[in-house]
Design a protein that fits this description.
mainly alpha, 62% helix, 12 helices, 3-stranded mixed β-sheet, 273 residues, 3 strands
Amino acid sequence: IKVSFYKNGSKKACEGHQAIQGYIDSKNPKDTWVSYSYAVSFWGICRLFQQSRANLGLSCQLSGTGFAVKSNLIKEMGWGATCLTEDIEFTMKLALKNIKVGWAGDAIVYDEKPITFTQSWKQRKRWMQGQADVGCKYLAKVLKKAVKEKSIVTLDCALYLLQPLRIVAMGYITIMSWMQNVYPDSPLVLTSLFQYFPYHFWDLIVIVQFLWNPLALYAEKKLSIETLLYYPAYTLFSLTWVPIAIIGFINKDNKDWFHTQHTRKISIDEMKQ
């Protein structure tokens, strides 16, 4: 695995990239519905977030695992990332210096994912705490730079920091769409923006949101009968991001680190079976 990452990642370094993100796969997707949901999420992220940005000439996002930064860049600017999501923070520090993160989609790292919902909740809450913290510290700076320099690359980085708000917004839309169908005369529906749109408009928004990933999985050659059988569980997993994002924002100043246990010993030969 390391040889593959170094070999394929070095290609991007030779192209001039000073920071490179590799493809994060899962080494234990079939352990539980939680680990499978993680795998589906990361497969989608690699295609929809990372590969798409690379195709458009934008900057990818460092993702904590499977990335490389040239030593001379660290010597020049230091690390200096103190938020719980130091990968996102360093990505923003790079954006402020007009340094794009390259995407090495063929440099694959197999990461162990949590197998219990409790572990997953704590890990994702830490992620949301960190991302909210990074957003509060860097959004204005990155957005100001994007507007001043008319940089789409920097603007995209700024928009990425709004990810927690997007999660909460989609949760709100999902809940209100359900209420519009079940309790159309509810004061919450009648006093919201939902009354100004066609009846099933928001239903369509919710459905489209959950159809992106199967298309991404198909493009990644990860779509299978087993994946489709797990997809309802993944949908439930996705909805739990909403309370996690809210709690994470409320606790953004909490810097306590929760260590995610890694106990699965799986060889590369076992994964090829």
